[in-house]
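User: My instructor asked us to take a sequence, write out its structure as tokens, and then describe one feature of it. I'm not sure where to start. Here is the sequence I was given:
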Amino acid sequence: MHVTKRRTILAAMLATAAVTACPALAQDQAPADTRPAIDDSDDIIVTAQKREENLQNVPISIQALGTKKLDQLNISNFAEYSQLLPSVAFQSSQPGVTTVYMRGVASGGDGNHSGSLPSVGVYLDEQPVTTIGGTLDVHVYDVARIESLAGPQGTLYGASSQAGTIRIITNKPDTTGFSGAVDAEVNTVAKGGVGGKAEGFVNIPLSDMAALRVVGFYQRDAGYIDNVAGTRNFNVSAPAAPLAPGYTGTVTNAALVKKNFNTNETYGGRAALKVDLDDNWTVTPSVIYQEQRSKGLFGYDPRVGDLKVQRFNADSRRERFVQAALTIEGKIGNWDATYAGAYLDRTAHSATDYTDYSEAYDSLYATHNGISSYFYFHNAAGLTIDPRQYVIASDHFKKMSQEFRVASPQDERFRVVAGLFYQRQSNLIHQDYQVANLAPLLSVNGAPGTLWLTQQHRVDKDYAMFGEASYDILPNLTLTAGARAFIYDNSLIGFFGFGRNPAYIQGGTGNPPPNAAGSSRTGVAGCFTNQGLRLRDAQLAGAGTTLLPPAVDGGPCTNLGVYNTRTGGVDPVEAEGQGVTHRLNLTWKPTEDILLYGTWSRGFRPGGINRRADVQPYAADYLTNYEVGAKTTLFGGLLRLNGAVYQQEWKKFQFSFLGANSFTEIHNGPNARIRGIEMDANLSTGGLSLTAAGSYTDAKTLQNLCGYDDPTFTCATAGPTGQINYISAAKGTRLPITPRFKINGTARYTAPVGSGKAYVQAVVAHQSSATSDIRNKVFIGTFLDPTDPATVADPASFFNAATALGRLKSYTTADFAVGGQFGSYSLELFVQNAFDERAELSRFQACGNCGQRGYIVTNTPRTIGVRAGTKF
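Assistant: Let's start with the prediction itself. The structure tokens for your sequence are:
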């Protein structure tokens, strides 16, 4: 709720924190990777540069949230800690489906299983957990710190760290003593239900040289969106066939009406074993398991009402991941050696109501009396049926990574870090678009009731060798140079599309419809025969029509691949490339408490494959960063003040969007330029601690973004099948998702009370508005048959302004807490989102042409709760 008086109060609170402390995040004293948490009075130790270093000595823009800060702010997931990281923005449709961006490096539309690799890398301890299907939302508990490294990290972290890296560092087993904790919470959500969580850990020394640490957690997030009663009316004024009994063109969701239907449960645990083999070598195997189950939709439809939607099939998602990791640390002579290997297995199963898609197509074909007239949604008896679709989908990610690196002694004048890296990640993609009672001959072959099927296997491989060398020109002047040589090899194979009635003959007469969509080109029509021709071409040529077996189990055949004349089979479509990224840094410490630096660095994302044969592969894109920054510790350590100014050049950025028939297409767009400022600070005096952090980001395109590929960016060349080209986003358009301003402030006052201590705390976060899509204009005529006179006669009538998504509005939220610690026990009362602000986290539509309904993903409404815990 945007109320002027509340905004004035919140702005005054935020300004006070910012003026008093200037922006800051990294107040907490994060432990080194192999040590337990330490107090806020100690130095902040991070490992952003693959060495243990004081945060104030690391010449990059980095924020660190330590154990105490994470506990104090009751942070348990990505959405909660990202609001405290000024360089981070994200798009999310529901828990577990989140795409992360940093420093404005965003073109929108990312995160699809057939899309670009992420531009921000995410690490759990030493191992990368970045996957195409969204950021791994690791439950945050018993975590040493979260490091946010802004800017290209391509030298030390590689391909998916083009714009930055987020590292989650867990607390490690401790051989010095037994310890543990248990924490519990119950809360209630305004206009919603009741939630809570229970968490705990135990650290068990097994001997002087071995220890075990085990963590367990369960969290239930209450629902707050209502599925309200509604109807949809499809045009059945002139159906191609009589209506099936009981179908009138009007459908209702009465059986699914429910309050607070968007619930989410997260549970799991992790365990780590630390074994000191001798004084030099340590082995740390670990495993983490996490499962997340969500129901309902996490966006609301403003056309229906605040926190309300109308859904006609049950929405759900279940995600499970397991990661086993092994870290070996030791000495080779006087050099440090580290091996880090991991295997991640992540599966996500979802069911999604796709009624909006059918509704949109019914409107698009209004001149043909709707889809009941234009298409063939018929049952086995040939009668017209309800055309609504229900999507059953799964993604099965597997990721194996290995890194070996060495580092020379840190106290020498010349220092080196160098290593080798390899990772292979795959995704088995399954998407089944079902229509109840659809005739088998109109369905995908072998899958009755399936209108469309995607059954694909994607593999992304990355090989690299990297190194950084630092030389102290003077005791207070250091030059660092680094490079990473990489090779990427990405492939995609499988099936996608409609089925094909075996009785349909390409070029024949008197044919039955090939499928429910009447498409004679897409799907089985494009599958390879045993002679190497595609089925459609084989029929036109009068050749044999025996299809090759599917390359990916579960598909009817293979239409995405390359026929191999030598083997007589189908090979994956591949995209390969190689290159070098670099970092050059000069650091000057005029005094012990002041560090100044300048950096020139580069990051990249690999190129890849478009599954549509008529859309070219996309090339790698590169981000070059020019940055100067300062880190200061003032007034005897009471105030830390850090800041950076940067300019980034993003060359031919990868741009993903839902194109014709809601296919994901990835193109290389124009160049973009991003300028920004980041600051963070912390002031601690007596019992008062003030922190603030903020960023300003100016990100814009330098040429036009065209509706269709045009290397000149004039948008004057013709589009496919002779369709007109057009300017989708003019030169100077702001890049989406990232707000121009983002700032937060925290104030905490602690005072002794008897033998314990009590505290009050306030957190205020604000961000300005942002666009939800880079495009201002979208031509939806390509969703129709190009031979359709309705499309060709008046193409201008098929322009849809920015797909009706709208802007992400600015918002300000406030959280408050009061509590106490007495011995080993703690108790806290808290209110989050105290003024019940509707923060617009992202906007989305069901499909590329579903402009009639846009959904707003919002934060949780005002939540009041109590939290208690004990340490032992």
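For the description part of your assignment, you could build on this observation: Residues 1-42, 781-797 have pLDDT under 50 and may be disordered. Try explaining in your own words what that tells you about the chain.
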